[in-house]
Design a protein that fits this description.
The protein is built from no helices and five strands. It is mainly β and 79 residues long. The protein has a domain of 38 residues: Rubrerythrin, domain 2, CATH 2.20.28. Helix content is 0%, strand content 24%.
């Protein structure tokens, strides 16, 4: 069920209400009880995920990232 944002025209209280998409009937402000509420435009929520490291190996065969690639020359690691 979607969450909608509302604002009271009488007291200015802003609140969220979860209801079906076809609308809620008899909306009242939870702060003052007024029926003078209006739906507000809101930003949709986003789900953020943590960045995942990419697998693999560096040029010298290590699995950790190098500070300054290329990390090796002549077969020796410069870490």
């Amino acid at each position: 069920m979607p969450i909608y944002d509302y604002a009271c025209g009488d007291c200015g209280h802003r609140f969220e209400l979860k209801h079906e998409m076809d609308g809620a009937s008899d909306l009242k402000c939870p702060s003052c009880g007024s029926s003078s509420v209006s739906k507000q435009i809101s930003m949709p929520g986003l789900i953020r995920t943590a960045a995942k490291s990419q697998g693999g190996q560096t040029c010298c065969g290590r699995t950790e990232r190098c500070d300054e690639p290329p990390c090796s020359s002549g077969g020796q690691c410069h870490r």
